Amino acid sequence: MESARQQKRPVRLLLAPYDSGIAETRMGAGPLAIAPFAERRLRESGVAPSVHRLDPASTWRPEVETAFELQRLIAGEAHRAFERGEFPLLLSGNCNATLGMLAGAAPSGQRRIGLIWLDGHADFNTPETTSTGFLDGQGLAMIVGRCWSQATKRVPGFSPLPEDDVVLVGARDMGALEERALNASKIIQVPPPSARQTQDLAAIISDLVQRVDAVHLHIDLDVHDPQRVAPANSYAAPDGLLTEEVRSMVPLIRARVPISSATLAAYDSEADRGARIRTAAVDLVAELVLGSQPI
Ligand SMILES: [Mn+2]
Q1: CA 137–ligand 1 middle distance (angstroms)
Q2: CA–CA separation, 280 and 224 (whole Å)
Q3: How much distance in Å is there from the Cα of 217 to the middle of ligand 1?
Q4: Nearest alpha-carbon partner for 81 in 122, 49, 42
Q5: pLDDT at 3 > cutoff 50
Q6: Is residue 295 part of a domain?
């Protein structure tokens, strides 16, 4: 037991407590609500994470620039964590922050990092398909290079991911134009009915590992079912996954490909019920960290 503990990689917990440019409000408060409980759980298991909060330095920014400044900060921090041999784990208000984690993971381009993106939504809008202007509905589209390409070019180490290196799990709520774009893309889709069949996901990961050396695991907590678990945020859509279904994906993935970093995002405690989603998040952190293997 003790020797197993000693093999654990140190953990770098990064906090990006922003939602749509605003600090500590709505989903922006999520990282600060989860972090103390996650830290305590890890400490109880003999792992003391180092915690680092990220805040933009610029005093005035155009509305969406906060997201890109955070991506740049996250890329730098994730890169430093990898260099020190730490496991970088991001708690973020918004999903698009994962772009920074991917940028920090492969600055030299030597390792090919795939992306497994668990989310109730596809986050595949672009400025041309969104009807609300919500930047965080565009995170996955940014990551594969479909929009905001000049802004993401400024994120150190970032290059768009090939679409077939991306697996979208649990998405069930998207706009018509967004869905059309997604279906025309090469992104591998695992909708909820399929996500509940472990053999489906296992086969997809086994295929993905032919193309990538490791994966970043992104978990928008609204992949969970709002009725049978609880709403993770005000966007949570029905027909989601159970906590056990989500958590069991971690060892299923890890048995086939190293998980080199992870994000938990989009937690709004005001939507949660009985802290169920917060508890699920802490359980996921424990599963990710205590089971993580050096790569
Ligand atoms: Mn999302």
Answers
A1: 7
A2: 9
A3: 13
A4: 49
A5: no
A6: no
CA of 139 to the centre of ligand 1 (A): 7
Tell me how far the alpha carbon of residue 70 lies from the centroid of ligand 1, in angstroms: 16
CA-based max dimension of the chain: 54
* Number of structural domains the chain divides into: 1
Which amino acid is present at 279? T
Assess if residue 255 is contained within a domain: yes
pLDDT of residue 7: 53
- Residue 196 is predicted with a pLDDT of 95
What's the 241 CA to ligand 1 centre distance in angstroms?
Answer: 15
Domain annotation covers residue 254: yes
Ligand 1 centroid to 171 CA: how many Å? 9
Q: What is the 121 CA–ligand 1 centroid distance (Å)?
A: 6
Q: Reduced to 3 states, what is the DSSP secondary structure of residue 112?
A: coil
Domain residues for 63?
A: 2-290
The Å distance, Cα 136 to ligand 1 centre, comes to: 7
Distance 265 CA to ligand 1 centre (A): 7
| C-alpha 3 to ligand 1 mean position (Å) | 37
Q: How far is the CA of 292 from the centre of ligand 1 (A)?
A: 24
Domain assignment of residue 230, yes or no:
yes
Q: What is the per-residue pLDDT for 124?
A: 98
Q: 118 CA to middle of ligand 1, Å? A: 8
Query: DSSP assignment of 209-265, as one string?
Result: TTT-SEEEEEEEGGGB-TTTT--SSTT--SS-B-HHHHHTHHHHHHTTS-EEEEEEE
- How would you label 169-204 residue by residue, b for 16+ Cβ within 10 Å and e otherwise? bbbbbbbeebeebbeebebbbbebeebeeeeebeeb
Mean pLDDT over the full length of the chain: 94
CATH number of the domain at 104, please. 3.40.800.10
Q: What is the pLDDT of residues 71-127, one digit of tens each?
A: 999 999 999 999 999 999 999 999 999 999 999 997 655 689 999 999 999 999 999
How far away, in angstroms, is 43 Cα from ligand 1 center? 29
